Amino acid sequence: MGSGPPLSNAGSGSNRENGCSVSSQTTESASIDSYATNQTFAELGVDPKLVAVLTGQGITTAFPIQALTISDALAGRDVCGKAKTGSGKTLGFGLPMLQRIAATPGPVGPGPARPRGLVLLPTRELAVQVHEVLEPLGRALGLAVTAVYGGADIERQVKHLRKGSDVVIATPGRLIDLGDRGEVKVEGLDVLVLDEADRMADMGFMPQVEWVLRRIATRPHQTLLFSATLDGAIDRLVKRYLTDPVFHEVVSDTQTVSQMVHHFLNVHQMDRVKVAATICRSFDKTIVFCRTKRGADRLVEQLEKEGVRAAAIHGDLRQSQREKALADFSAEKLPVLVATDVAARGLHIDAVDCVMHYDPPEDHKAYLHRSGRTARAGSTGVVVSLLLWNQIIEAQVIMRRLALKRPIVEVFSNNPHLADLASWTPTMEESVL
Questions:
Q1: Which sequence spans correspond to the domains of the chain?
Q2: Does domain 254-430 fall into CATH 3.40.50.300?
Q3: Which residues contact 382 (CB under 8 A, 6 or more apart)?
Q4: Picking from 16-25, 126-135, 181-190, which range would have the lowest pLDDT averaged per residue?
Q5: What are φ and ψ of residue 69, in 5° steps?
Q6: Is 312 exposed, middle or buried (0-12, 13-18, 19+ CB in 10 A)?
Q7: pTM, to two decimals
Q8: DSSP state of 429
């Protein structure tokens, strides 16, 4: 396995992608305790044209996963990057992919797209956000970057592809649809990126991922795989398809949890919506998670009746509706976003004050993924779980897995502490158990 560049404990500059507080590499056990390093992108070997674009965006120094992976990726190594959502992975794989493709340009003409770079990722929202990051960088190098994903007009996407695409950013299902129609040919790939690989495995996308890998198995190519975990299906994928990969890891669970204020509140069914509305009114930006699409839609209606403006985001909505909700929430035109777990991974939204688990997550990993929408890049945030009596055991299991010791406190919507959860510290004596 290879090794990345030396790191410094003191970070400077800014980066729009969020980072992790402790970084380590499996081959060296190097670590840092800040969200930025002293490594500039120029020092990592990034093309001056790309550095100029980043500088214009206020991005001057690399985050840990970027500092660890960029040099190896530029050298042509297969890379496995283990890091949580929001750690800065997009630039970690995007910069070397674009730079390597631009160094040996190939023909990009009309007809079916024959990209030289492909980014596979699990959700539409992540596809949109990765495209927003990489498109201006690709343009600086004369590369065409196109995003294709479900829920959007496929004919419009075909029209864009036929103009020529050096890099395609795709969700697996839409890529297969376009491949079956003969609109995308992946056999000429030089660089394949698998982003949020564990999430794709969880969503059942491994057959589509292997559909791509089988088509390029005999062609020399580079694979960059980024995932929060590297076990199970991901480990099998790495062993079968990657060539002598170098492994890099950014450790973030404990530090991310410690940056959050956690509350576990026992509420009553008839009062739960009012409790949620009271909490939402006390923050500028709140993401509320529900388990089902119908539950998310219903909660939006109920919050509106309580005078709280909210919008839903889930898989049954048109892509235009989802994009508008995200845009309004990001721009602080909308104070509350009610989401299913489709939004728990891959979304980079600045300054989310509070994450509310209106319905408990499936497990401790889902708790972390959801909660990771707040307390990003070293900031603090509030995470609150609303628990009915029959959900308390689920919450206790999650707390044990995360080594969280918090009281479960009974509250009603008129509780004054709900207006300032960030500074409320209930004691274990107040716990309902």
A1: 22-251, 254-430
A2: yes
A3: 260, 261, 263, 283, 353, 354, 355, 374, 421, 422
A4: 16-25
A5: -105, -25
A6: buried
A7: 0.71
A8: G
